[in-house]
What we know:
4 copies of one chain form a homotetramer.
Chain A: E1 9-14, E2 17-22, E3 28-31, E4 34-37, H1 38-41, E5 48-50, E6 53-56, H2 60-67, H3 77-86, E7 94-98, H4 104-113, E8 118-122, H5 126-139, E9 145-148, E10 162-165, H6 174-178, E11 186-191, H7 194-203, E12 208-221, E13 233-235, E14 240-246, E15 248-249
Helix pairs in contact in A: 3-4
Amino acid sequence: xxxxxxxxxxxxxxxxxxxxxxxxxxxxxxxxxxxxxxxxxxxxxxxxxxxxxxxxxxxxxxxxxxxxxxxxxxxxxxxxxxxxxxxxxxxxxxxxxxxxxxxxxxxxxxxxxxxxxxxxxxxxxxxxxxxxxxxxxxxxxxxxxxxxxxxxxxxxxxxxxxxxxxxxxxxxxxxxxxxxxxxxxxxxxxxxxxxxxxxxxxxxxxxxxxxxxxxxxxxxxxxxxxxxxxxxxxxxxxxxxxxxxxxxxxxxx
Amino acid sequence: xxxxxxxxxxxxxxxxxxxxxxxxxxxxxxxxxxxxxxxxxxxxxxxxxxxxxxxxxxxxxxxxxxxxxxxxxxxxxxxxxxxxxxxxxxxxxxxxxxxxxxxxxxxxxxxxxxxxxxxxxxxxxxxxxxxxxxxxxxxxxxxxxxxxxxxxxxxxxxxxxxxxxxxxxxxxxxxxxxxxxxxxxxxxxxxxxxxxxxxxxxxxxxxxxxxxxxxxxxxxxxxxxxxxxxxxxxxxxxxxxxxxxxxxxxxxx
Amino acid sequence: xxxxxxxxxxxxxxxxxxxxxxxxxxxxxxxxxxxxxxxxxxxxxxxxxxxxxxxxxxxxxxxxxxxxxxxxxxxxxxxxxxxxxxxxxxxxxxxxxxxxxxxxxxxxxxxxxxxxxxxxxxxxxxxxxxxxxxxxxxxxxxxxxxxxxxxxxxxxxxxxxxxxxxxxxxxxxxxxxxxxxxxxxxxxxxxxxxxxxxxxxxxxxxxxxxxxxxxxxxxxxxxxxxxxxxxxxxxxxxxxxxxxxxxxxxxxx
Amino acid sequence: xxxxxxxxxxxxxxxxxxxxxxxxxxxxxxxxxxxxxxxxxxxxxxxxxxxxxxxxxxxxxxxxxxxxxxxxxxxxxxxxxxxxxxxxxxxxxxxxxxxxxxxxxxxxxxxxxxxxxxxxxxxxxxxxxxxxxxxxxxxxxxxxxxxxxxxxxxxxxxxxxxxxxxxxxxxxxxxxxxxxxxxxxxxxxxxxxxxxxxxxxxxxxxxxxxxxxxxxxxxxxxxxxxxxxxxxxxxxxxxxxxxxxxxxxxxxx
Lengths: 253, 253, 253, 253
C-alpha cells in the first residue's frame, strides 16, 4: 500500500474543485473545508476522505490539468491521449515534437514511449521553452525528453517513429519534419481554424497518405442517479486534428 | 530503415479502404488495384505507394480495428485511448479488467503498461475467452497479459493500480473489484444506456469519489483543401464512460 | 419603409451585447457606446448604425430571448422553432399546451397558428400564470391565446390538432391530453433527464405511434473570415424532446 | 373528426419505414404487412392501426421528407424550421428566396407566411424549376408562392421582410438581394463548406450587422424505455447556416 510521503504530490478535491499540491510537512491547505495540515497526511494511504477533503494520488491527467504551469494554450488530455495512441507511440518509440508550448503533450508522450523511448521537442520562444523545461523537470517521470530552444530546421535523429506539430503554420515546417521520419511514420498536427485545415491539406498532396481530419468532443454528464443528464455547458472547440503518414511513391518497373 | 519482412503485418489502403494482412511470400493481395504479390514487397521499406496501393506499417489502432477478430462489440480506440490514460496507466502499472470481450482494450492496456506492467483480464464466456486469447497471442507485443476464463470473484493480486469493467451489469461486480485495488485507484466502466448509468451511480454513493460520466464523440472531416466540411454521417454513440476512484473515509479524531 | 415610432420595440446591439427596449420619447439608453436618445430615433428607419449602436427591428427570436420576462426555465428557440413545425402547426391550427411557464412556446405557437388559430394553455402555478399573461399581453401579436390558471384536467375543446406538454411528470397528464386530441394529432414533450424519457416511453406503449426521442444541438461559430472556427463553449443540454402521435387500433374484421 | 377521403394524403408506417401516399379508391399499398386497400380506409379517421400498418395524417415535415420529389439536395426540416422562425417569418410576411432547388424551404416558408404572405423564389436551372413548380402545385396549401425560372438580378418587390439564399456562391448575389429588402431585414444562407463561410463573411463586412454562423445537429434516441440511448449513427453534417441583417450606417451629425 502506497503511503503519502513528504515531497509527493496529492490531489485535493473539495466541493467539486480540484487542487494539486506537493506535501511539505510544515505547510497546510486552507480551503472551504477548513485547514488541512500536510503533516497529518504523511504516512496515511492515498484515497482518503478527511472531513470535506478527498485526497487522491494524482493521475497523469491531473498533472497535466492542475500541475503544469501554462504559458500557452495547451493541448488538452482529450486530444493528447488520442494523439499519443493514434501516432502509435509505445515503449521505445522515438517521437519528434515541433512546438513544445507548455510541454503538456511532451509530458504525455514521455509516458507513452517510456524510459527506453525518446521525445525530442523544439520550442522557438525562449519564455515558453523555460516554462516547459521547468514543467518537465518538476513533473516528468522518465529521463527521456530532449528540449531544444530553437526553431526546428533539422536534427541529428533521422528515423523518428512519429511526429507531432503544434505551431501556427504547420505547413511551413512539414517538409523538414518529414525528412527526419522513417517511412510510414504517422504525423499529427493540431490547428484551431478551418482555414488552417485547408492550408495543411494543400501541403499534404504529395509525399503523404492516409490523411485524416477530425475533432474530438467530450460531453460530460451530471452524476445524480435519479437525474441522468448532460451538463448544461460544454467545451465546444479546442482544435482540429490532422493526421497523415509519410509515403514514398515507388516505381513498379 | 525498417524493411518489410516475411511474417510481418502490413496495412494496405486502396481507394479509401483498409486491409490488414500478414506477409507470406507465396501469397498475393487481390483488390481493386489489381494483384499485389507479397514477395515483391519483401525488402522494401514501409510507407510506399505501388500503383493504387499504399502500404503502411500498422499502428496500434490499425491492429485493433482491422486485425483483431471480433466476437463481441469492441470498445473502439476513441474510447480505449482515453480510458488507458484517464486510468493513468503507465509503464509498470498493474491493471485489472473484468470483461475481456475480444481483447481490444486488453491489447491497448498491454501497450500502455509496457513489458514491466501487468494486465489481468477476466472473461466468463468461453467462446469470447478463446477468441481473446488468440487475438493476444497473434497480435500482442508484450508478455504482460493474463487471461482468465471465469467470472471475476477475486484474485491473487491485491493492489491493482486501476481497473476497467466492461460487463452488462458493472454494479454487480464493482465491490469485488474495489477490494483488489490500492487506495485512490481509478476505475473505469463503459455502458451503452442511460438506465445503466443510473444503476452504476447508485452503487458509487459510498466508497468512491471523483465520479465522472462522459461520452466521447469523434467528428471526421473530408480531406479536400477547397471543400473543408464534416463527413455526412458519424458514429453517434458507442457507450457512456463512467469513471470513479477508490476512496476510504477516515476518522479525523 | 417602416419607421421607428413611439411605443415600438427596438433591438440595440452594442459590442456584441443585445438589449430589447420600447421607444418612449423622453427616455434614453445608456450603454458602453454613450447615451442614445430615443427621441432621436423616432422617424428613422430600422436597421441603422448610429455610433456604436446597431438598431434593428426585433425578430420573434429577439422577443423570446430578450423581451419575455422569465419566471421559469424557458424552452429556447432552437427547440420551440422545431416543435412548432414538427407538430405541424399552421394557419388555423388549434394547439393545447400544458405548462405555460413563461409563455415562450405559447408566443411561438401563437405566431405559428396565426390569427385564425387557437392556443389554449394551462399553468397551475399562479405566479407563473400571471407572468405568462403579462408577457402575452405585452408582446403577443394575435388575439389567439387562451391562458388558464389551473391544472389541466380536461377542457371544452375536443379536437385539438396538436399538443405540447412541458411539466415535470408529463406521463401523469398524457392520457387526459390524448382525450382532447383529434386522431393522428402529434404530441410533443420536453424533459431534462434521461430517467424521464424512460418514464414517458412506458406510458406511450399503447394508444400512440411514431414515437421519437431526440435532442437539438446548436454549435455557433466565430464570424471572422480568416479564422473560421466554432466558439470555445456551447450550450450542451437544454432538454430531450419526445414526440408521438395519437393512434387507435381498429379491428380489421 | 377528420376522415380519410379520396385524393387525400396519408402517411403509412410499417416496421419503422414511412410511406406517403395519395388515396385513390381503386389502388392498394403492398408492403411487409400485406395488402392495404385504400378503399377500406375511406371514411375512417386518421390515426389508426390496421394490422401492421399505422395510418397518420401527414405533417408538414412528412410532406417535405416523403412527398416532395427531390432533384437537388434539399434543406432538411431541422434547418428549414429554424430558418423560417429565425428570419422571423410570420403571417403576412414577404420573403425572397434565391435558389428554389426542390422547393423544400419554399414549402415551409409558404406555411410560415400564410395566405396573406408572399414567397418569391428564383431558380436558374430549368429542370429544378419545373420540379419545384410541380412540388408546390401538388403539395402547397396556400396560393402565396411565386416561382421564377431565372437568375435573380432584381425584382418588382422592394421591401421584402426577409431573404434566404441557397446557391453555390451566395456572396455573388448578396448585394442584389440586399437592394430589395427593407431596413433591418434578416437574411439567411446555407453553405456546405467552411471555405464558403469564409467567402460569405468577407462580403458581410459592410452593410450588414448581427452576423451569426451556426450549425444544427439532431441526435435521435432509441425509444425503448429500459434502454435509453442514442442511435448508433447520426447525420453529422448538412450545412452551415449564416445569418445577418441589413444595416445602414447613418451620420449622427
